[in-house]
Amino acid sequence: MNGISNALNGLYDNSGVKVGQHFYWEIAGFQVHAQVLITSWVVIAILLGFAVINVWYPQTIPTAGQNFFEYVLEFIRDLSKTQIGEEYGP
Question: Residues 59, 66: contact at Cβ < 8 Å?
């Protein structure tokens, strides 16, 4: 456990960002929280990659990946319906 702790401390020390401090980028005159932007784009890339892989080769009997992707889409659809209402949802 001590080795993991030392490794994580080394990552924090080398990142250049101290605990409680954040770095911002200015894009088109807007100040953007860089960690949020990077994390959002990584998640978008993973979901798009997963979607492309599962849509590219559809199966008559859905695979585990297709079932998971359908679950994610239904979750997003239901979440949007509860947040903004049935008439504005997808």
Answer: yes
